[in-house]
Structure formats: structure tokens, C-alpha cells
Design goal:
Distance between the termini: 47 Å
Order of helices and strands: HEEEHEHEEEEEHH
CATH superfamily: archaeoglobus fulgidus dsm 4304 superfamily
CATH architecture: 2-Layer Sandwich
Helix content: 25-40%
CATH class: Alpha Beta
CATH topology: archaeoglobus fulgidus dsm 4304 fold
Number of strands: 9
Strand order of the largest sheet: 3-2-1-4-5-9-8-7-6
Shape: globular
Radius of gyration: 18 Å
Amino acid sequence: MDVTLQHEHAWDVSTGEAKALQKRLAPQVRAEPLPRAPQTVAGVDVSIRGDLAQAAIAVLRLPELEVVAEAVHRCDVPFPYVPGLLSFREMPALLPALRKLDATPDLFMLDSQGLAHPRRFGLACHFGVLLNVPALGVAKSRLEGERAGELSVEKGSRVALLDDDPGETIGAVVRTRDDTNPVYVSIGHRITLDEAVEITLQCSPRYKIPEPTRAAHKLSRKERE
DNA sequence: GCGACAG
DNA sequence: ATCTTGTCGC
């Protein structure tokens, strides 16, 4: 796809400069409805093995989740892992992969935080703002914020993720499947939180888990608590 | 100083 | 994230 960056900036920066960049760009994030129901969504991820970073993007058509395009790119790992600065580790691998992609998805899903970030500028925001595309973040664990309440075990249940101030809502904790750990959903850019949650659920596997397995999981979870 | 800490 | 070990269900 056509990759035109809204803001050109260096990636080889100090941690101090990286944080300053995030603070400068964070006001660019826009929470607004999608222009139309997305017909395609891109799953975006980066794996790191030793010195090798490998970015992968898969475009799926909704609602059947059929893969219609994909691209990968390998390069050196450019930045250490620092909580809150994931963009500087993953974006340099992601941009060339995007250029190889033979499609322009309606929306991007990143395995990261978006707004639910100490400076309100997680990877999903950085990605969305630089490329000026709709993006959302789905993380497997918490970086910032606190659950507004208890979460029930049924698929689809959700609670707000709040952060200090006047209880600012920075995301949602969402159960995408019965009896599984919830995910942390937050907006990246040009989407609303409700839409982000809806899309996340729509993109979750919905095959039926065999009942004996479910019962055992239920028991083992009870024992851990 | 201590605890927390996306991937 | 990646790596390793251990358990359980099918």
C-alpha cells in the first residue's frame, strides 16, 4: 500500500527523546467514528528472535476472516525493549512490510496498547497517526489504568479501563471468549472505543470449545484464586 | 528507595 | 517477546 508518513522523525533516538516525541504527537490522536463499517482488517505483529525482527501483516475480509493479502519484512532489532517505548522497537520493521502489502485495509489491529499508555501514545496510536489510518490496540496485559469493576466470565463482557484524573476512560477490558483471560482494548486513531471493542469481538475465534476442557479450565482457575 | 512494567 | 518444563484433554 501507499505509505506516506504524516510526521517524519528519527527512530534512532534516546529514551528521553522517544518520550518527548510521544508527548508531542499524542495530541494528534483522534477518537472519531469510522467512515463506514470496515470490510477488511489488518492484523499487525512483530516477532523478535535474537537480533532479528520480523514484521508480519495479514489482511482479512470481514465477517468471514478470510486472508486476502499478507506481507512480511525482516530487519535488525533497532531498539531495546522498554515498557512504554514499544513503537521504537517495532515501527521500523512495520513500515517496510506495509510498503510490500498489496492491499489497503480499512483498519489496523495491533497487539499493543493505543491510548491506554502512560503518555497516551502506545504503538497503535503511533502507527495510526503516522500513517493517518484507523487503528486500534489489543494487548494481552495491562500497562496503564485500572479496571472499573469486576469482569464476568462470559464472552462479550467488558469493563472500562480508567486512569486517575476525573476517572478518564482510556480503554476497555474485554472478554473475547468464555472462560479465557480478557484483553485490553484501546483506540489507536480515527476510531471510537466502542467500535474498537466491537471489531475485536468480531475478529475473535468463535469455534466451540469442547465442554470437558471448559469445565477443567473453570476448575483450575477457581483453584488459583 | 520500592514496586510496576504493552512486547 | 522468547525459552522451558509440566499437565491435561482428545
